[in-house]
Amino acid sequence: MTDQSGVRPYQRLAVIGAGAWGTALATVARRGGHDVTLWARRDDLAAEINNHRTNSRYLPDTTLPDGLRATTDMAAALKNADAVLIVTPSKSIRTIAAQTRPHMSPGVPVFVCAKGIEADTGLLMAQVVAEEIPGHAVGVISGPTFAIETVQDHPTAVTVACNGDPSEALPAARMALTLTTDTFRPYVSNDITGVEIGGAVKNVIAIACGILAGAGFGENTRAAIITRGLGEMKELAVKLGGTRETVTGLGGIGDLMLTCSSTKSRNFSYGAQRGAGVAEGDVFDGRPVVVEGRDNARTVTDLARSLGLHMPICEMVRAIVVEDHPIGEAFAAYWAAPIEAEPRALDIAIAHPAEDAAAKRFEDLLP
Ligand SMILES: NC(=O)C1=CN([C@@H]2O[C@H](COP(=O)(O)OP(=O)(O)OC[C@H]3O[C@@H](n4cnc5c(N)ncnc54)[C@H](O)[C@@H]3O)[C@@H](O)[C@H]2O)C=CC1
Ligand SMILES: O=C(CO)COP(=O)(O)O
């Protein structure tokens, strides 16, 4: 083990995005004694955080720490920052990164905390930020973390990743130290790709688990989807240069376990409502809720297709949420696929002996 006891924490953090996860990470850093400025898009939210120590829309019934400052002024948020976290939904990461660029001091590292892949380009979030803010070290923070539980001080672990030689004092190690508190425990990684693919794919698999739970299937089905989904995640990560070990870590299987088994997950809840027959427009009673997996279903499968990879569970979710296929038809197509090997590296494909019957069963049963 390399002794990195000379590593120093960052002192002044700018957290860009005052939704649930941005506010939670700002809270962790502030509880760790650091100087934290939280950038919010809306004046009323910044005022609420400053004046009442609450963020009632995104983190109801919680009190934020004293000294956590919020602002809508990007220049002010970034003025003295020695590290920056960007915590908005993945769709907005390029725009937000571009907004930060004119105000960023030289050499300040940027950590992206969104879980997604950019539509059209197929780029991972760290790649998007690197394009928009060239010359800065870029890392990611990911893992099994419901924002509300983090703020409520439930012991929570994350992975902080930067690319590079792990024996060096990487920005990831400094950020891990910065965010360490008595209840928040970061681990350090040098595999951004593996961590990012984990975060994007787990959202899609969580929708699949939600759909099947909402449709009335039980734990056997969920365990099958989580496990086979992990296999899809691993193949994509490895194809892009990530490692299997990362996929079996917090940002991979850790986040899959969390998100695929809890109604606290927006992805799972969205799926559960669709599986129970709620129409797309009526999910969450029509409220706008960030469900990254809806976009990820398309971006993950587009990326996989471009690499010649087949991700059958992600394709099933895409068929349902992007292409509006009936759930029964999409699940039947997945479930009645030819018999194959586990792992898929063994090249076996035997036609399903009761393909039509299996298909019919689910087409009749599911919405
Ligand atoms: N909520 C959670 O428990 C966790 C969320 N994440 C990830 O964090 C990212 C952000 O999610 P949440 O904070 O949960 O979302 P949220 O819905 O709670 O908040 C999103 C924030 O981004 C802002 N925003 C949205 N679109 C924007 C745009 N175009 N320009 C500028 N600001 C914009 C909103 O005003 C809001 O402050 C997502 O990628 C999510 O997967 C990761 C771990 C945990
Ligand atoms: O990423 C998350 C937990 O790690 C949050 O999950 P949801 O976006 O599904 O709510």
Automatic annotation (TrEMBL):
Main location: cytoplasm
Domain Glycerol-3-phosphate dehydrogenase NAD-dependent C-terminal: 191-330
Short name of any one Pfam family annotated for the protein: NAD_Gly3P_dh_N
Binding-site positions, sn-glycerol 3-phosphate: K115, G143, T145, K202, D255, S265, R266, N267
Entry keyword annotation includes Oxidoreductase: yes
Enzyme Commission code: 1.1.1.94
Binding locations of substrate: K115, R266, N267
Pathway in which the depicted protein is active: Membrane lipid metabolism; glycerophospholipid metabolism
Catalytic activity from the UniProt record: sn-glycerol 3-phosphate + NAD(+) = dihydroxyacetone phosphate + NADH + H(+); sn-glycerol 3-phosphate + NADP(+) = dihydroxyacetone phosphate + NADPH + H(+)
Residue span, Glycerol-3-phosphate dehydrogenase NAD-dependent N-terminal domain: 13-163
Binding site for NADPH: W21, R41, R42, Y58, K115, A147, R266, V290, E292
Enzymatic class: oxidoreductase
Gene3D superfamilies hit by this protein: N-(1-d-carboxylethyl)-l-norvaline Dehydrogenase, domain 2, NAD(P)-binding Rossmann-like Domain
Cell compartment(s), UniProt: Cytoplasm
GO biological process, one term: glycerophospholipid metabolic process
A single GO cellular-component term on record: cytosol
Job description of the protein: Catalyzes the reduction of the glycolytic intermediate dihydroxyacetone phosphate (DHAP) to sn-glycerol 3-phosphate (G3P), the key precursor for phospholipid synthesis.
UniProt family annotation: Belongs to the NAD-dependent glycerol-3-phosphate dehydrogenase family.
NCBIfam families listed in its UniProt record: PRK00094.1-2, PRK00094.1-4
Protein name (Swiss-Prot/TrEMBL): Glycerol-3-phosphate dehydrogenase [NAD(P)+]
Organism: Rubricella aquisinus
